[in-house]
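Worked example 3 (structure in, sequence out).
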């Protein structure tokens, strides 16, 4: 799928995604009627990508909570007021389709990828955090953690075009920054090293790839296009376009591309 960067193009992309998702749901009416019923009821009366995203997050996180409408209203209000959430969601969805060979299309990512859902729940929680609705932000965080096994602090700053493969066990700390086009596998920790306050979590630069089980600890930087091997423990800066691996992680290779996009796993 072609990646787009301008607001008008992203609006068009959302319309394309929404149209394709609805066409794919309709095609399931007779071939997989149980799935058709589930997906249709999840979207309920959603009329576009924006309201569909709100319906998805509500269904996943709060469907069984008493007084459910108030939770939907909270999510829908934030998504409606901050259009960049849907812009980022569309770009994330394309990233999943481009980088995951197991993905069969937009419908699969939108409804059945907990990494995608966790990203979008975080985007809503982050806005709540920035609006000083801190407990509402934490409510979304804990519900996402319990539902998706993904724990992202609401204050963490995430770019767009992010791919979370499987995502189970992912932990992202409060002062973490993850830039655009980063790919992260399951059981990765972007954490601190102790009780220090202030900027105490990693900065992951554009196009980096963090392989399964990597632990990146402290206020350090993983450079643009760098790769952290599976199971590595990173305690110091990683230069751009370098592969590191091991415990503690050491340099093993130099790269010439952003591996977060190429998905060249170690």
């Amino acid at each position: 799928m072609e990646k787009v960067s301008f607001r008008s193009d992203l609006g068009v992309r959302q319309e394309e995604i929404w149209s394709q998702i609805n066409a794919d749901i309709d095609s399931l009416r007779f071939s997989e009627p149980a799935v058709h019923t589930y997906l249709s009821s999840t979207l309920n009366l959603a009329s576009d990508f924006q309201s569909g995203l709100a319906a998805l997050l509500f269904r996943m996180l709060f469907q069984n909570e008493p007084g459910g409408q108030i939770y939907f209203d909270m999510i829908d209000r934030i998504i409606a007021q901050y259009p960049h959430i849907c812009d980022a969601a569309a770009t994330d969805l394309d990233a999943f389709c481009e980088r995951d060979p197991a993905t069969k299309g937009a419908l699969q990512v939108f409804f059945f990828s907990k990494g995608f859902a966790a990203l979008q729940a975080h985007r809503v929680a982050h806005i709540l955090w920035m609006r000083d609705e801190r407990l509402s932000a934490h409510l979304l965080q804990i519900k996402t953690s319990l539902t998706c096994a993904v724990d992202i602090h609401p204050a963490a700053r995430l770019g767009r075009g992010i791919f979370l493969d499987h995502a189970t066990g992912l932990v992202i700390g409060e002062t973490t920054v993850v830039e655009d086009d980063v790919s992260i596998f399951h059981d990765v920790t972007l954490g601190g090293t102790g009780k220090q306050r202030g900027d105490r979590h990693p900065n992951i630069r554009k196009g980096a790839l963090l392989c399964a089980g990597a632990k990146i600890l402290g206020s350090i930087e993983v450079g643009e296009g760098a790769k952290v091997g599976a199971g590595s423990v990173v305690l110091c800066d990683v230069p751009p376009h370098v592969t590191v691996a091991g415990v503690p992680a050491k340099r093993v290779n130099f790269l010439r591309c952003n591996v977060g996009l190429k998905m060249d796993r170690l």
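Notes: The longest strand covers residues 250-254. The chain is about 45% helix and 15% strand.
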